[in-house]
Amino acid sequence: MKSVKPMKKIALEEHFITAPFEEYETNIEEGRKAAASQDINLRLPEFDQLRLEAMDKAGIEISVLSMTSPGLQAEKDAAIAGQKAVEANDFLAGVIARHPKRFAGFAHLALQEPEAAIKELKRCVKEHNFKGAMINGHTNGVYLDDECYKGFWEAVASLDVPIYLHPADAFEMPQSYHDYPMLRGAMWGWGVETATHALRLILSGLFDRLPTVKVILEHMGEALPFMLWRLDSRFQLSEPTRPLQKLPSQYLKENFIVTTSGACDNAPLQCCLTAMGEDNVLFSTDYPFESAQIAADFIDSAPLSEELRAKICYQNAERILKL
Fold this sequence. Notes:
Layout lengths: L8 E8 L17 H10 L6 H9 L1 E8 L10 H21 L4 E3 L8 H14 L5 E4 L13 H10 L3 E4 L22 H15 L2 H4 L5 E3 L10 H9 L11 H8 E4 L6 H11 L4 E2 L9 H10 L4 H16 L2
Parallel strand pairs: 1-2, 2-3, 4-5, 5-6, 6-7, 7-8
Helix pairs in contact: 2-11, 3-4, 4-5
């Protein structure tokens, strides 16, 4: 059921960096081939030619842009982080203003001070029309289930925007990664870290308290859709930290959305569609860390009905992000 022609697409995990924030960027050179790093470094800070050309070739109508990981969440000084978050979001708003039909944005937040993050998220959504926020894992070891973020999640629910939970390095590297640096990042460690963060949100009772909150996970859900039965089975045999109203799988199905970024494979796609439901799977590319063209060719040729392909490529994103 290959698509007759490339289908219109909206992409949600499309990264950038700009000079004042390069010190907060993950070291992409470590363990990566030189040619790949060179291309990424060329594309990350660029908006007006290479990025638009890649979008056009891939059939991507809109890219939702976000600061690359870990960003200002790695800053130790809360005041500096808060000030620079405003600067980063104003910069992105300026980029979007140059290409308002092609770009949208996720807010970049300094979560060191939750009240400042709330204020900035509200400003970005109401004044810049950003579509939510991308959060790069923990903030100096503090995860989003911490009690200090109770008001933040209430603001997210009130604004009715999603939070894109994006990978970052583990706060402490497991012993099992030693001697194999490639395991620490995108190949393995980031997925484990992000999936664990998502489960912390579920087990904290967040979605019982705020059932309308939506969280987006990349990379076909970081393997969580594959684990639904086992998560429920082991949960039922455990003494929960907090009582939950539902089984873990139900929160994943009702409160989480997954994207295809960086996972161009039909097997996990079919698993996500079966486990999460066809309304909760969205196209994305992870540009420029992955090829937009490979991602587009994958979804255009995946064995899907054209109605389902349209949902994944753009209709679900239009609904969830109110585009």
